[in-house]
Amino acid sequence: QKQLNEKISRITNQAATAERSAREREDAFKRDQESTKRKDELNNELKKLTELEKDLEKQIQPFKTQLMQKESDRNRMRDANAQEDGMLGNQLKYFERDIDKLNDVNEKIDLYVQSSKEKEYNEVDQKLCLNAEDICSGEEKLNEMKPEMENLKKQVEDGERQKKIIQDNLELFKLENKLNKLQEEIKNLQDELDAMGGNDAREKHQLAVSNIRQHQSKVERYNGRMQGLTEQKRSLRRKLNEPEYKGVDERQRKKMIEHETTGIVVTDLDKYYDALDKALLRYHGMKINDINKIIRELWTLTYKGEDITNIEIQSGQDSGSRANRSYNYRIVMSKGNTQMDMRGRCSAGQRVLASIVIRLALAETFCLNCGVIALDEPTTNLDFENKRGLGIALGQIIASRAAQSNFQLVVITHDEEFVSMMKQELSSQTGFNMPERYYQVSREEGHDGRFYSRINAVDWDDL
Prior knowledge:
This protein is mainly α and 463 residues long. It has helices at residues 2-114, 117-155, 159-196, 200-240, 248-302, 348-366, 384-401, 416-428, and strands at residues 310-317, 327-335, 338-341, 372-376, 408-412, 437-445, 451-459.
Protein backbone atom coordinates (compact mmCIF):
# COMPACT_ATOMS: atom_id res chain seq x y z
CA GLN A 1 0.00 0.00 0.00
CA LYS A 2 2.85 2.39 0.83
CA GLN A 3 4.57 1.73 -2.47
CA LEU A 4 1.29 2.29 -4.26
CA ASN A 5 0.86 5.62 -2.49
CA GLU A 6 4.43 6.63 -3.34
CA LYS A 7 3.82 5.61 -6.92
CA ILE A 8 0.57 7.59 -7.02
CA SER A 9 2.33 10.59 -5.43
CA ARG A 10 5.18 10.33 -7.92
CA ILE A 11 2.74 10.06 -10.81
CA THR A 12 0.79 12.99 -9.42
CA ASN A 13 3.99 15.06 -9.19
CA GLN A 14 4.93 14.04 -12.70
CA ALA A 15 1.44 14.97 -13.94
CA ALA A 16 1.71 18.35 -12.18
CA THR A 17 5.16 18.87 -13.66
CA ALA A 18 3.91 17.85 -17.08
CA GLU A 19 0.91 20.14 -16.74
CA ARG A 20 3.15 23.00 -15.64
CA SER A 21 5.52 22.29 -18.51
CA ALA A 22 2.55 22.13 -20.91
CA ARG A 23 1.35 25.48 -19.61
CA GLU A 24 4.79 26.96 -19.97
CA ARG A 25 5.03 25.62 -23.52
CA GLU A 26 1.54 26.91 -24.26
CA ASP A 27 2.58 30.35 -22.91
CA ALA A 28 5.77 30.19 -24.94
CA PHE A 29 3.75 29.20 -28.01
CA LYS A 30 1.39 32.12 -27.45
CA ARG A 31 4.38 34.46 -27.03
CA ASP A 32 5.88 33.08 -30.24
CA GLN A 33 2.57 33.62 -32.03
CA GLU A 34 2.38 37.15 -30.67
CA SER A 35 6.01 37.75 -31.65
CA THR A 36 5.31 36.39 -35.14
CA LYS A 37 2.20 38.55 -35.42
CA ARG A 38 4.16 41.56 -34.11
CA LYS A 39 6.95 40.77 -36.57
CA ASP A 40 4.46 40.67 -39.46
CA GLU A 41 2.95 43.95 -38.30
CA LEU A 42 6.42 45.51 -38.08
CA ASN A 43 7.30 44.16 -41.54
CA ASN A 44 4.10 45.65 -42.96
CA GLU A 45 4.82 48.91 -41.21
CA LEU A 46 8.40 48.81 -42.53
CA LYS A 47 7.08 48.27 -46.08
CA LYS A 48 4.70 51.19 -45.66
CA LEU A 49 7.54 53.37 -44.33
CA THR A 50 9.75 52.27 -47.22
CA GLU A 51 7.04 53.19 -49.73
CA LEU A 52 6.49 56.48 -47.90
CA GLU A 53 10.24 57.16 -48.05
CA LYS A 54 10.24 56.52 -51.80
CA ASP A 55 7.26 58.85 -52.24
CA LEU A 56 9.02 61.52 -50.17
CA GLU A 57 12.15 61.07 -52.27
CA LYS A 58 10.08 61.63 -55.41
CA GLN A 59 8.36 64.67 -53.85
CA ILE A 60 11.62 66.21 -52.64
CA GLN A 61 13.31 65.93 -56.03
CA PRO A 62 11.59 69.08 -57.49
CA PHE A 63 12.54 70.99 -54.31
CA LYS A 64 16.15 69.91 -54.80
CA THR A 65 16.06 71.28 -58.33
CA GLN A 66 14.49 74.54 -57.12
CA LEU A 67 17.10 74.77 -54.36
CA MET A 68 19.93 74.43 -56.87
CA GLN A 69 18.31 77.09 -59.08
CA LYS A 70 17.87 79.44 -56.11
CA GLU A 71 21.52 78.93 -55.11
CA SER A 72 22.61 79.68 -58.65
CA ASP A 73 20.44 82.83 -58.73
CA ARG A 74 21.81 83.90 -55.36
CA ASN A 75 25.44 83.51 -56.47
CA ARG A 76 24.72 85.31 -59.74
CA MET A 77 23.02 88.20 -57.90
CA ARG A 78 25.89 88.39 -55.42
CA ASP A 79 28.43 88.66 -58.23
CA ALA A 80 26.30 91.25 -60.08
CA ASN A 81 25.84 93.33 -56.90
CA ALA A 82 29.55 93.18 -56.10
CA GLN A 83 30.46 94.23 -59.65
CA GLU A 84 27.92 97.06 -59.67
CA ASP A 85 29.08 98.23 -56.20
CA GLY A 86 32.65 98.38 -57.54
CA MET A 87 31.57 100.36 -60.62
CA LEU A 88 29.49 102.79 -58.53
CA GLY A 89 32.39 103.24 -56.10
CA ASN A 90 34.80 104.07 -58.93
CA GLN A 91 32.31 106.51 -60.49
CA LEU A 92 31.76 108.13 -57.09
CA LYS A 93 35.52 108.61 -56.69
CA TYR A 94 35.71 110.24 -60.14
CA PHE A 95 32.78 112.54 -59.28
CA GLU A 96 34.36 113.51 -55.96
CA ARG A 97 37.65 114.34 -57.69
CA ASP A 98 35.81 116.44 -60.31
CA ILE A 99 33.89 118.22 -57.56
CA ASP A 100 37.19 119.01 -55.76
CA LYS A 101 38.60 120.51 -58.97
CA LEU A 102 35.44 122.56 -59.53
CA ASN A 103 35.58 123.81 -55.93
CA ASP A 104 39.20 124.94 -56.49
CA VAL A 105 38.16 126.81 -59.65
CA ASN A 106 35.24 128.41 -57.80
CA GLU A 107 37.56 129.53 -55.00
CA LYS A 108 39.94 131.13 -57.52
CA ILE A 109 37.02 132.85 -59.26
CA ASP A 110 35.64 134.10 -55.93
CA LEU A 111 39.09 135.38 -54.93
CA TYR A 112 39.40 137.16 -58.22
CA VAL A 113 35.92 138.69 -57.89
CA GLN A 114 36.56 139.72 -54.26
CA SER A 115 40.01 141.22 -54.96
CA SER A 116 40.51 144.83 -56.28
CA LYS A 117 42.70 143.83 -59.19
CA GLU A 118 40.33 145.33 -61.75
CA LYS A 119 40.29 148.68 -59.91
CA GLU A 120 44.07 148.69 -59.62
CA TYR A 121 44.28 147.83 -63.28
CA ASN A 122 42.15 150.85 -64.18
CA GLU A 123 44.21 153.12 -61.92
CA VAL A 124 47.45 151.88 -63.44
CA ASP A 125 45.96 152.40 -66.91
CA GLN A 126 45.10 156.00 -66.04
CA LYS A 127 48.56 156.56 -64.63
CA LEU A 128 50.06 155.11 -67.77
CA CYS A 129 47.98 157.45 -69.88
CA LEU A 130 49.07 160.44 -67.75
CA ASN A 131 52.67 159.34 -67.86
CA ALA A 132 52.47 158.87 -71.60
CA GLU A 133 51.13 162.41 -71.92
CA ASP A 134 53.88 163.72 -69.65
CA ILE A 135 56.44 161.81 -71.68
CA CYS A 136 55.09 163.21 -74.92
CA SER A 137 55.10 166.78 -73.55
CA GLY A 138 58.54 166.28 -72.08
CA GLU A 139 59.87 164.99 -75.38
CA GLU A 140 58.34 167.98 -77.14
CA LYS A 141 59.91 170.34 -74.63
CA LEU A 142 63.17 168.49 -74.99
CA ASN A 143 63.05 168.84 -78.74
CA GLU A 144 62.26 172.51 -78.38
CA MET A 145 65.02 172.94 -75.83
CA LYS A 146 67.71 171.25 -77.83
CA PRO A 147 68.41 174.16 -80.20
CA GLU A 148 68.18 176.57 -77.32
CA MET A 149 70.55 174.41 -75.30
CA GLU A 150 72.94 174.35 -78.18
CA ASN A 151 72.65 178.05 -78.54
CA LEU A 152 73.03 178.48 -74.80
CA LYS A 153 76.02 176.20 -74.77
CA LYS A 154 77.51 178.19 -77.41
CA GLN A 155 76.48 181.49 -75.92
CA VAL A 156 76.50 181.00 -72.22
CA GLU A 157 78.51 178.69 -70.19
CA ASP A 158 77.43 179.67 -66.75
CA GLY A 159 76.87 177.34 -63.84
CA GLU A 160 73.25 178.04 -63.19
CA ARG A 161 72.13 177.19 -66.70
CA GLN A 162 74.32 174.12 -66.60
CA LYS A 163 72.79 173.17 -63.26
CA LYS A 164 69.31 173.54 -64.67
CA ILE A 165 70.20 171.41 -67.61
CA ILE A 166 71.57 168.75 -65.28
CA GLN A 167 68.45 168.88 -63.13
CA ASP A 168 66.27 168.55 -66.23
CA ASN A 169 68.32 165.60 -67.33
CA LEU A 170 67.98 164.01 -63.90
CA GLU A 171 64.27 164.58 -63.98
CA LEU A 172 64.19 163.02 -67.42
CA PHE A 173 66.06 159.97 -66.19
CA LYS A 174 63.66 159.62 -63.27
CA LEU A 175 60.67 159.83 -65.60
CA GLU A 176 62.18 157.19 -67.90
CA ASN A 177 62.81 154.87 -64.96
CA LYS A 178 59.28 155.40 -63.72
CA LEU A 179 57.98 154.75 -67.24
CA ASN A 180 59.89 151.47 -67.47
CA LYS A 181 58.54 150.35 -64.10
CA LEU A 182 55.01 151.19 -65.10
CA GLN A 183 55.38 149.32 -68.39
CA GLU A 184 56.70 146.24 -66.53
CA GLU A 185 53.79 146.48 -64.07
CA ILE A 186 51.32 146.78 -66.97
CA LYS A 187 52.87 143.74 -68.62
CA ASN A 188 52.65 141.71 -65.40
CA LEU A 189 49.04 142.76 -64.88
CA GLN A 190 48.22 141.84 -68.48
CA ASP A 191 49.85 138.41 -68.06
CA GLU A 192 47.93 137.80 -64.83
CA LEU A 193 44.72 138.92 -66.50
CA ASP A 194 45.35 136.57 -69.43
CA ALA A 195 46.11 133.71 -67.01
CA MET A 196 42.82 134.31 -65.17
CA GLY A 197 40.84 134.25 -68.40
CA GLY A 198 39.89 137.77 -68.62
CA ASN A 199 36.41 138.22 -70.08
CA ASP A 200 35.98 134.45 -70.50
CA ALA A 201 36.18 133.85 -66.76
CA ARG A 202 32.48 134.59 -66.22
CA GLU A 203 31.46 132.15 -68.93
CA LYS A 204 33.80 129.52 -67.48
CA HIS A 205 32.31 130.16 -64.07
CA GLN A 206 28.78 129.64 -65.36
CA LEU A 207 29.85 126.50 -67.24
CA ALA A 208 31.52 125.16 -64.10
CA VAL A 209 28.38 125.87 -62.05
CA SER A 210 26.29 124.01 -64.66
CA ASN A 211 28.69 121.04 -64.56
CA ILE A 212 28.54 121.01 -60.78
CA ARG A 213 24.75 120.88 -60.88
CA GLN A 214 24.81 118.05 -63.43
CA HIS A 215 27.31 116.09 -61.34
CA GLN A 216 25.24 116.71 -58.21
CA SER A 217 22.14 115.37 -59.97
CA LYS A 218 24.11 112.29 -61.10
CA VAL A 219 25.38 111.80 -57.56
CA GLU A 220 21.85 112.00 -56.19
CA ARG A 221 20.62 109.56 -58.84
CA TYR A 222 23.42 107.11 -58.07
CA ASN A 223 22.75 107.53 -54.35
CA GLY A 224 19.14 106.56 -55.04
CA ARG A 225 20.26 103.50 -56.97
CA MET A 226 22.66 102.57 -54.17
CA GLN A 227 19.83 102.87 -51.64
CA GLY A 228 17.66 100.60 -53.83
CA LEU A 229 20.46 98.05 -54.13
CA THR A 230 21.05 98.24 -50.38
CA GLU A 231 17.36 97.58 -49.74
CA GLN A 232 17.42 94.70 -52.23
CA LYS A 233 20.49 93.31 -50.47
CA ARG A 234 18.66 93.48 -47.11
CA SER A 235 15.60 91.75 -48.57
CA LEU A 236 17.82 88.98 -49.98
CA ARG A 237 19.48 88.54 -46.62
CA ARG A 238 16.04 88.31 -44.94
CA LYS A 239 15.01 85.80 -47.59
CA LEU A 240 18.11 83.71 -46.88
CA ASN A 241 17.05 83.53 -43.24
CA GLU A 242 13.68 82.02 -44.19
CA PRO A 243 13.07 78.28 -43.51
CA GLU A 244 13.24 77.51 -47.24
CA TYR A 245 16.87 78.63 -47.47
CA LYS A 246 17.98 78.21 -43.88
CA GLY A 247 20.81 75.72 -43.57
CA VAL A 248 21.20 75.55 -47.34
CA ASP A 249 24.99 75.28 -47.06
CA GLU A 250 24.74 72.20 -44.83
CA ARG A 251 22.15 70.62 -47.12
CA GLN A 252 24.30 71.37 -50.14
CA ARG A 253 27.30 69.79 -48.37
CA LYS A 254 25.29 66.62 -47.62
CA LYS A 255 24.04 66.41 -51.19
CA MET A 256 27.58 66.85 -52.47
CA ILE A 257 28.68 64.00 -50.19
CA GLU A 258 25.84 61.86 -51.56
CA HIS A 259 26.80 62.82 -55.12
CA GLU A 260 30.47 61.98 -54.60
CA THR A 261 29.56 58.73 -52.84
CA THR A 262 27.25 57.81 -55.71
CA GLY A 263 30.05 58.55 -58.17
CA ILE A 264 32.40 56.25 -56.25
CA VAL A 265 29.73 53.53 -56.17
CA VAL A 266 29.18 53.91 -59.91
CA THR A 267 32.94 53.61 -60.50
CA ASP A 268 33.08 50.46 -58.35
CA LEU A 269 30.07 49.03 -60.21
CA ASP A 270 31.79 49.74 -63.53
CA LYS A 271 34.86 47.87 -62.31
CA TYR A 272 32.67 44.98 -61.13
CA TYR A 273 30.79 45.01 -64.44
CA ASP A 274 34.06 44.92 -66.39
CA ALA A 275 35.33 42.01 -64.29
CA LEU A 276 32.00 40.18 -64.66
CA ASP A 277 31.95 40.85 -68.40
CA LYS A 278 35.48 39.48 -68.79
CA ALA A 279 34.55 36.44 -66.70
CA LEU A 280 31.46 35.85 -68.85
CA LEU A 281 33.53 36.15 -72.02
CA ARG A 282 36.03 33.68 -70.63
CA TYR A 283 33.21 31.34 -69.55
CA HIS A 284 31.62 31.68 -72.99
CA GLY A 285 34.90 30.74 -74.65
CA MET A 286 35.37 27.76 -72.35
CA LYS A 287 31.85 26.48 -73.01
CA ILE A 288 32.25 26.93 -76.78
CA ASN A 289 35.47 24.89 -76.60
CA ASP A 290 33.71 22.16 -74.56
CA ILE A 291 30.80 22.05 -77.03
CA ASN A 292 33.16 21.85 -80.02
CA LYS A 293 35.09 19.04 -78.34
CA ILE A 294 31.92 16.97 -77.86
CA ILE A 295 30.78 17.84 -81.41
CA ARG A 296 34.11 16.61 -82.76
CA GLU A 297 33.80 13.30 -80.91
CA LEU A 298 30.18 12.73 -81.94
CA TRP A 299 30.79 13.77 -85.57
CA THR A 300 33.76 11.44 -85.87
CA LEU A 301 31.66 8.65 -84.40
CA THR A 302 28.49 9.22 -86.45
CA TYR A 303 29.51 10.67 -89.83
CA LYS A 304 30.99 8.08 -92.17
CA GLY A 305 31.64 10.29 -95.17
CA GLU A 306 35.07 11.59 -96.14
CA ASP A 307 34.18 15.05 -97.47
CA ILE A 308 33.80 16.65 -93.99
CA THR A 309 36.41 15.96 -91.34
CA ASN A 310 34.80 17.95 -88.54
CA ILE A 311 32.22 20.63 -87.76
CA GLU A 312 32.32 23.25 -85.01
CA ILE A 313 30.49 26.32 -83.71
CA GLN A 314 32.18 29.70 -84.12
CA SER A 315 30.91 32.94 -82.56
CA GLY A 316 31.56 36.48 -83.66
CA GLN A 317 30.89 39.34 -81.28
CA ASP A 318 28.94 42.35 -82.61
CA SER A 319 30.51 45.75 -82.07
CA GLY A 320 28.39 47.88 -79.78
CA SER A 321 27.85 48.82 -76.18
CA ARG A 322 28.27 46.27 -73.45
CA ALA A 323 24.58 46.34 -72.58
CA ASN A 324 23.57 45.48 -76.18
CA ARG A 325 26.28 42.93 -76.83
CA SER A 326 25.26 39.93 -78.92
CA TYR A 327 26.99 37.05 -80.69
CA ASN A 328 26.65 35.74 -84.21
CA TYR A 329 26.92 31.97 -84.17
CA ARG A 330 27.69 29.97 -87.30
CA ILE A 331 28.45 26.36 -88.11
CA VAL A 332 31.77 25.79 -89.86
CA MET A 333 32.80 22.51 -91.56
CA SER A 334 36.44 21.65 -92.15
CA LYS A 335 38.42 19.32 -94.39
CA GLY A 336 42.05 19.22 -93.43
CA ASN A 337 43.12 22.84 -92.76
CA THR A 338 40.33 24.39 -94.85
CA GLN A 339 37.24 25.81 -93.16
CA MET A 340 34.03 27.19 -94.67
CA ASP A 341 30.49 27.96 -93.59
CA MET A 342 28.19 24.94 -93.64
CA ARG A 343 25.09 26.94 -94.63
CA GLY A 344 24.20 26.32 -98.28
CA ARG A 345 27.12 23.93 -98.84
CA CYS A 346 25.85 20.66 -97.30
CA SER A 347 23.21 18.10 -98.13
CA ALA A 348 19.95 17.63 -96.25
CA GLY A 349 21.27 14.52 -94.49
CA GLN A 350 24.46 16.30 -93.40
CA ARG A 351 22.34 19.21 -92.13
CA VAL A 352 20.08 16.86 -90.10
CA LEU A 353 23.04 14.96 -88.68
CA ALA A 354 24.83 18.18 -87.77
CA SER A 355 21.68 19.49 -86.05
CA ILE A 356 21.36 16.31 -83.97
CA VAL A 357 25.06 16.26 -83.07
CA ILE A 358 24.96 19.93 -81.99
CA ARG A 359 21.85 19.36 -79.88
CA LEU A 360 23.46 16.36 -78.19
CA ALA A 361 26.61 18.40 -77.49
CA LEU A 362 24.56 21.27 -76.02
CA ALA A 363 22.66 18.79 -73.85
CA GLU A 364 25.91 17.17 -72.68
CA THR A 365 27.37 20.59 -71.80
CA PHE A 366 24.49 22.48 -70.20
CA CYS A 367 21.84 19.92 -69.18
CA LEU A 368 23.68 18.01 -66.47
CA ASN A 369 20.81 18.38 -64.00
CA CYS A 370 18.14 17.83 -66.62
CA GLY A 371 18.92 14.51 -68.33
CA VAL A 372 16.00 14.34 -70.77
CA ILE A 373 16.87 14.17 -74.48
CA ALA A 374 14.06 13.98 -77.07
CA LEU A 375 14.75 13.24 -80.76
CA ASP A 376 11.90 13.39 -83.27
CA GLU A 377 12.62 11.50 -86.53
CA PRO A 378 16.41 11.83 -86.21
CA THR A 379 17.11 9.66 -89.30
CA THR A 380 15.34 11.91 -91.79
CA ASN A 381 17.49 12.39 -94.93
CA LEU A 382 20.29 10.20 -93.48
CA ASP A 383 21.90 7.46 -95.58
CA PHE A 384 22.59 4.00 -94.16
CA GLU A 385 26.14 4.70 -92.93
CA ASN A 386 25.28 7.94 -91.21
CA LYS A 387 22.13 6.40 -89.73
CA ARG A 388 24.24 3.55 -88.36
CA GLY A 389 26.77 6.02 -86.94
CA LEU A 390 24.00 7.96 -85.22
CA GLY A 391 22.63 4.73 -83.70
CA ILE A 392 26.08 3.85 -82.39
CA ALA A 393 26.54 7.34 -80.91
CA LEU A 394 23.16 7.25 -79.16
CA GLY A 395 23.91 3.76 -77.83
CA GLN A 396 27.20 4.94 -76.36
CA ILE A 397 25.49 8.00 -74.83
CA ILE A 398 22.87 5.76 -73.20
CA ALA A 399 25.57 3.44 -71.86
CA SER A 400 27.68 6.32 -70.46
CA ARG A 401 24.70 8.11 -68.87
CA ALA A 402 22.89 5.05 -67.54
CA ALA A 403 24.25 5.62 -64.04
CA GLN A 404 22.60 9.05 -63.95
CA SER A 405 19.34 8.82 -62.02
CA ASN A 406 17.44 11.44 -64.02
CA PHE A 407 18.65 10.46 -67.50
CA GLN A 408 15.98 9.65 -70.08
CA LEU A 409 16.26 9.39 -73.86
CA VAL A 410 13.08 9.72 -75.93
CA VAL A 411 13.42 8.76 -79.61
CA ILE A 412 10.38 9.17 -81.86
CA THR A 413 10.89 7.41 -85.20
CA HIS A 414 9.20 5.35 -87.92
CA ASP A 415 12.52 3.66 -88.80
CA GLU A 416 12.61 0.22 -87.11
CA GLU A 417 15.99 -0.46 -88.71
CA PHE A 418 17.42 2.50 -86.75
CA VAL A 419 15.96 1.08 -83.53
CA SER A 420 17.60 -2.29 -84.36
CA MET A 421 20.95 -0.54 -84.84
CA MET A 422 20.62 1.09 -81.43
CA LYS A 423 19.73 -2.32 -79.91
CA GLN A 424 22.81 -3.94 -81.42
CA GLU A 425 25.04 -1.18 -80.09
CA LEU A 426 23.47 -1.38 -76.61
CA SER A 427 23.92 -5.17 -76.62
CA SER A 428 27.65 -4.71 -77.21
CA GLN A 429 27.97 -2.34 -74.22
CA THR A 430 28.57 -3.59 -70.69
CA GLY A 431 28.03 -2.18 -67.21
CA PHE A 432 24.35 -1.26 -67.49
CA ASN A 433 20.94 -2.88 -67.82
CA MET A 434 19.29 -3.08 -71.21
CA PRO A 435 15.89 -1.35 -71.55
CA GLU A 436 13.12 -3.89 -71.07
CA ARG A 437 10.81 -2.64 -73.81
CA TYR A 438 10.04 0.11 -76.23
CA TYR A 439 6.67 1.68 -76.99
CA GLN A 440 4.90 1.39 -80.33
CA VAL A 441 2.23 3.94 -81.28
CA SER A 442 -0.40 2.91 -83.82
CA ARG A 443 -3.65 4.33 -85.20
CA GLU A 444 -6.83 2.21 -84.92
CA GLU A 445 -10.47 2.78 -85.71
CA GLY A 446 -12.89 2.58 -82.80
CA HIS A 447 -16.44 1.31 -82.59
CA ASP A 448 -17.80 4.81 -83.13
CA GLY A 449 -15.98 5.16 -86.45
CA ARG A 450 -13.32 7.54 -85.06
CA PHE A 451 -9.59 6.87 -85.14
CA TYR A 452 -7.63 6.67 -81.90
CA SER A 453 -3.93 6.35 -81.08
CA ARG A 454 -2.90 3.10 -79.40
CA ILE A 455 0.31 2.70 -77.39
CA ASN A 456 1.69 -0.83 -76.95
CA ALA A 457 4.72 -1.84 -74.88
CA VAL A 458 6.89 -4.21 -76.98
CA ASP A 459 9.79 -6.24 -75.58
CA TRP A 460 13.24 -5.69 -77.07
CA ASP A 461 13.46 -9.38 -77.88
CA ASP A 462 10.40 -9.12 -80.14
CA LEU A 463 12.12 -6.47 -82.30
